[in-house]
Structure to design on (158 residues):
């Protein structure tokens, strides 16, 4: 009986250790891979404007994603994001040039810091500024969870 208990204990311990090894392997975090995913996402994000396709824009955000523009309330969820997209299109935005300067974080979330240039017809700059995006893993994809940005252009003269 003692021998059986010892064999059972060793077997369970080996299985438990093996499961932990698999768990560690599957949960590895590769910041360089995430940076590449963000770069690819930023490209298709801009394509949403070029194609006038709000779904290309909205699908880059988590289900409860929020945009926090300067001088405006926080806009959260797909309907609010669609309203924002429509407003940007109405302002003549045809594409966005995003330049990532920093990406940091870990498996729980990643922060991207960079600059943007909103472009209109004939690649005319409509606004230049900076942004911070908190990225979150959702359904196996890194998506924007919180997006805050503000212009770098001087305030209009009063």
């Amino acid at each position: 009986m003692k021998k059986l208990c010892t064999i059972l204990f060793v077997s369970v311990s080996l299985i438990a250790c093996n499961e932990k090894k698999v768990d560690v392997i599957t949960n590895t975090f590769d910041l360089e891979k995430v940076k590449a995913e963000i770069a690819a996402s930023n490209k298709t994000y801009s394509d949403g404007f070029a194609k006038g396709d709000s779904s290309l824009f909205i699908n880059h955000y988590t289900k409860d994603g929020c945009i926090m523009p300067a001088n405006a309330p926080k806009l959260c969820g797909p309907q609010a994001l669609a309203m924002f997209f429509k407003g940007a299109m109405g302002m003549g935005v045809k594409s966005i040039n995003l330049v990532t300067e920093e990406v940091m974080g870990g498996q729980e979330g990643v922060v991207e810091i960079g600059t943007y240039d909103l472009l209109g017809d004939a690649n005319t700059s409509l606004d230049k500024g900076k942004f911070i995006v908190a990225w979150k893993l959702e359904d196996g994809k890194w998506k924007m969870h919180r997006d805050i940005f503000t212009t770098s252009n001087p305030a209009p003269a009063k």
Observations:
- Residues 137 and 143 are 6 Å apart (CA to CA).
